[in-house]
Structures are given as C-alpha cells and as structure tokens.
Write a structure and sequence with these properties.
heterodimer, A: alpha/beta, Rossmann fold, four-stranded antiparallel β-sheet, globular, B: mainly alpha, 77% helix
C-alpha cells in the first residue's frame, strides 16, 4: 500500500529547469545566462557549483535568493518559493567581493544584520561576540569596516551570513582575492559549518578548494549544467588503483613492478614521489617562519 | 535539533523599517552632514546686521530686523532641507546597489517595501533633526533680539509720551514678529515640503541610472512645482469653452496628482511678515505631505519590486 511521505524532509535547495534571459539592446536576442539548470541539494550537503567566469553561477545563486526573477523554472529553499520573502528566513548569503557599510564597525555591521533578522538584546550581543570569535575578528570588532583588508571583509561577510543561524549558507566565490592563509581560514570555517550540519552551496572557480570541501559538485558551462553528482563518483578513475608506500626501497618498488608485469591485463602506469601542492608548501613554510619568530 | 528558533523572531514591518531608518540616519550623520549647522549659525548671526531699506518711521526699525532674522533663517532652512532631501535620497539607493550591500540586505528576510520606507524615513529623520536644531538656534536668537527691540521701542514710546493703547499695540506688533506658534508652523511646513521632495527623489532613484541624474531631475521637478499652478491656470483659461476643455482638465489634474504644487507652501512668507498661520492650513499641508509621500513611496515600490540586481 502506498503511504504518503508526510515526514519527508524538503531539499535545502531545489532549482528546477531554471532559465534566465537578460534583455540586451532593443532588436537583439536576449542573452541566456542560465539554460535549463536543475540542482537539488539535501540538508547537510556541501555543494560546489563550478564553472568559468560568466557561465551563470552567480545568476543561479541570485535567482535562488530572489534577487533576479526566473524567466522560466522555479527555485525553492526548504520548500519555500524563492520569490517570497519568508524563503530567506533560513538563508545566509555572502556575495562575491562584498562591500559593507564603511561607516560601521565590524560589530555594528553584525548587529545591523542581526536586527534585520529579528534578533535583539542580549541574544544579539552574544551572537555577535560568538561570530566575531568564530571568524577571528574580535580584535578588530570596533574598527570601521573601511579599514578592513580583503580577507577581513570576506570573514565579516561570512559572519553576517551566519548571524541568524541559518540552515543554508550560500557563498559566491568565498575566497576570491584572499591570500592563501585567509583562504585556508575560510575553508576551515566551511568545514565547521559542515560539521554543524549546515547546508552549504558555494560557487568558485578554484577547483582544488571545491574538491577539498564539497561532497557534491555541478559543472556549469555557458549557462548549462554539463555534469553533476557526488564528487567521489565524478573524479574516481574506475580502471585505476592508487598505492602509496612509505619508506619503500627501490628494490621493493622493482619487485612490485615485476609482480604487476606477471599479471596479464594489469599495467604499472607510473612510479615516483607524490608532490605536495604549492599552497600546502606556502602554508607550511610561512607557519614555520612565524613560529621561528 | 534546530537551534535557529532559539535566537530569532520574525520581525514586523515596523521594526525592520526602523532598523533600516536608524541605519540610514547614522550613515548620513557619519558623512558629517551636520557641519552645515555652523554655516547656518553664521547666516543667523549675519542676518542681525542686514540693514533693509526702510520707508517707515523709527518705530519699525526693530521689527525689520526681526523679519530679517526670520526671513534668512527660514530661507536657509529651506535651502538646507531641500538639498539634504534630494542629495541624501539620491545617494543612498545607488550606493547600496554599487557596493552590493543591497544583496546582503535583500538576501535577509527584508521585504523591498520595508527597505525603501526605511531609507526614506532615515533621510526624513535627518532632515527633521537638522530643522529642529536650526529651529532652536533661530528661536534663541529671535527671542533675544525681540527682547532687545521691545525694551528699546517701549523706552522710545514712553519718551515720546505715547498713549497706553498705542504702546500696547506696538508691543503686540513686536511680539507678533518674535518666536510665535505660527513660526513653528512655518518650520513644520518646511519639513513637510522636504518630505515630499525626498519621497519624489526616492521614486526617481528607483529607475535612474545615476545619483547625478536623480539630483538634477529632482531639482527640476522642485522648480516646476513652484509654477505648475500658474501654468495650469493659464492653460485652463485658454481652453475654457472649447471642446478640449474636459480633456485639458483631465490632463492638468493628472499633472497636479504627480507633480506637487509647491506654491501651497508660500504661507511661510506670510509668517515671515508676522501673520498668523491658521491651524487648518497646517492640517491641510500635513495631509498634502502625507498624500504625496505615500503616493511616491508606493510608486517607488511598484518599480523597485520588479527590479533585478
């Protein structure tokens, strides 16, 4: 017997067949920025939307936040239509290269956004303090935003996105223009959000970062979704096996190679030393310098 | 468990609008707009020394100075309030769009009407506080000067042996030129006029592409508003008795609905002359101010609700 699924949890994000055209000049064809894109993100997932500049990532996010109206298709957040204001109760958004009111301090900025979400009094004070600590800006909380560095701006932006403890956080290029240390801090914050069960929808063209933090990925190109799925499934090379050895002598490596050669159909593609990334090298060396000082 | 419900409550329109209004006010204050008060003080002090050409007897000399103080003060108040209303309103909205701070605000559960109303109220709060401060300065100076004029004129009248009835008349005439309730009505009218102009500038800034465009168009409409009543009357008198008369009336009615008639605020000049401003005039101007402010803000919302960022 079919039982209605009353307890089914709505997806955190549901974008179905989204099309967005922008008018250009009078006689010319409208520009199609997003072409039949569908994305479904379940609560607790970290979803990365990747694609080159101008591929429609930001427009998709803006449609989800009701900042642009879809030409066709629908967007919903936790089952609520994105064009309605109440859909934004559970969302935090960090736009690309955010600028905040320069005349406010970091603390005043968070208080302003908190009040907009209906947080008041001691609860607001506590939440602001907690977030300033989380993004490591307690020391700069009374400084005017006008004097903040790019990385600090990004972090205060993330804090304002989290002010009302949203269940979904949308991040548009969260590490754009930030140095590797700042970038690492933002990535660590995304990890923390994931641990807390908060759904994260981010877009970036820094593929390595997306690979590190996301469990689901979509690739968008010229407005169309060309590939989507679980990250592990998408990047696994099914017919290859990786074997990483520590302190292996050249003799052992030769022995393994000989053993592989004995099996018909199997082939040893390469041996060598795995390389660290330039970013990890940079972080390790700068941290070493800092601890020496 | 969802911790969200523990900290936030869905705020009402009033509370959200007041948060945005207070923020807009703070933003403008921190742009150091109150520095203009120093200029106002200079104008006010200088107005004490302007010698207007006079054709009346010596008993009018003091009264003319009082009129001069009121005239210069209300003129400066009009200038500052109109400039503040237009420039501040024209600046706030495009700045939020350019800096993308608007994204972060509209990504919160903030209806667009609340955002617009908040910005407008922030500007109006600034204009109100500015006018209140200027009013305090004007009333202070005017009170001092009225007392001085009164003492001088009473001494002069007594020295000349004027009858008691004439002295009482002179006293009443001098006091009518001092800080009266009608003068406060005039200052309030200046505020109402600024409210209309600010809400009109808000409407223009919802579809304009630049602060400069909004500023120029707003000033133009402000000037047109000063002669639209005359133009309307002249046009209608020409059309009277023709078949186009009804159409012409319809068009002019529509024009007067969209463009306010600022000549209605000329009552301020009568107050400078020492005349009484009846309460019903204040009531009428308040209703007109409210009508245009609500009309313009709803029209702004109509455009802004469809706007994409």
């Amino acid at each position: 017997m079919f039982l209605p699924r009353m307890t089914e949890i709505p997806p955190a994000v549901e974008i179905s067949h989204l099309i967005k055209d922008f008018k250009t000049s009078f006689k010319r064809q409208p520009l199609r920025a997003v072409d039949d894109v569908s994305i479904r993100i379940m609560p607790g997932e970290v979803y990365g939307l990747i694609g080159p500049n101008g591929s429609g990532k930001s427009t998709t996010m803006k449609a989800l936040l009701g900042l642009v109206a879809p030409t066709a298709g629908k967007c919903a957040i936790f089952g609520k239509d994105s064009m309605k204001v109440d859909s934004r109760n559970e969302v935090g958004f960090l736009p690309e290269n955010p600028y905040f009111y320069k005349h406010l301090s970091g603390e005043e900025t968070l208080k302003f956004y908190g009040k907009l979400c209906g947080i008041k009094g001691a609860k607001l004070r506590d939440r602001v303090k907690q977030l300033l600590e989380l993004v490591d800006l307690s020391g700069a909380s009374h400084r005017r935003i006008g004097g903040y560095s790019k990385g600090m701006l990004q972090r205060i932006g993330l804090a304002q996105a989290l002010i009302q403890e949203p269940k979904l956080v949308i991040l548009d290029e969260p590490t754009a223009g930030v140095d590797p240390v700042g970038s690492r801090e933002i990535r660590d914050l995304i990890f923390k959000l994931r641990e807390q069960g908060i759904t994260v929808f981010l877009c970036s063209h820094l593929l390595e970062q997306v690979q590190e933090v996301c469990d689901h990925v979509g690739i968008i190109f010229k407005g169309k979704m060309i590939r989507e799925g679980k990250l592990d499934d998408l990047i696994a090379i099914e017919d290859q096996t990786e074997l990483i050895l520590k302190d292996a002598s050249p003799e052992l490596v030769a022995e393994i190679a000989a053993l592989v050669g004995k099996h018909a159909g199997a082939e040893l593609i390469s041996t060598g030393k795995p390389r660290t990334t330039l970013e990890r090298l940079f972080l390790r060396e700068t941290l070493k310098q800092e601890s020496n000082n | 468990m969802n911790p969200v419900s523990t900290i936030k409550a869905i705020p009402g329109h009033v509370s959200r609008t007041s948060v945005i209004a207070r923020h807009a006010f703070t933003q403008l204050v921190r742009m150091k707009v109150f520095y203009f008060l120093a200029f106002f003080a200079v104008i006010l002090i200088a107005s004490n020394f302007f010698n207007l050409p006079q054709h009346e007897g010596p008993e009018s000399a003091g009264v003319n100075i009082l009129r001069s103080i009121k005239s210069w003060s209300l003129g400066a108040m009009t200038l500052f309030s109109v400039v503040l209303s237009i420039v501040a309103t024209a600046l706030l909205l495009p700045k939020d769009v350019e800096d993308r701070t608007l994204y972060t605000i509209l990504a919160k559960p903030v209806p667009r009407l609340d955002y617009l109303a908040g910005k407008l109220l922030g500007v109006l709060l600034l204009v109100f506080v500015s006018l209140a401060l200027m009013d305090i300065l004007m009333v202070g100076i005017l009170q001092l000067r009225t007392n001085m004029v009164l003492t001088d004129q009473m001494a002069m009248a007594e020295a000349r042996g004027w009858p008691a009835a004439d002295i009482a008349l002179l006293k009443a005439e001098i006091l009518a030129q001092g800080p009266t309730a009608s003068l406060q009505g005039a200052v309030f009218s200046v505020f109402l006029r600024s409210s209309i102009i600010a809400s009109m500038a808000l409407l223009i800034s919802t579809f304009s592409s630049s602060t400069l465009f909004t500023t120029i168009i707003s000033f133009l409409i402000y000037f047109i508003g000063h002669f639209q009543a005359d133009a309307r009357a002249a046009y209608l008198s020409g059309e009277a008795g023709t078949s186009d008369g009804i159409l012409a009336r319809g068009v002019t009615l529509l024009v007067s609905l969209v463009l306010p008639d600022f000549q209605l605020f000329n009552v301020i000049d009568s107050v400078i002359e020492g005349q009484v401003m009846p309460l019903f005039i204040v009531g009428k101007l308040t209703l007109i101010g409210l009508f245009y402010a609500i009309f313009y803000i709803l029209a702004s919302w109509f455009i802004f609700a469809e706007k994409e960022f």
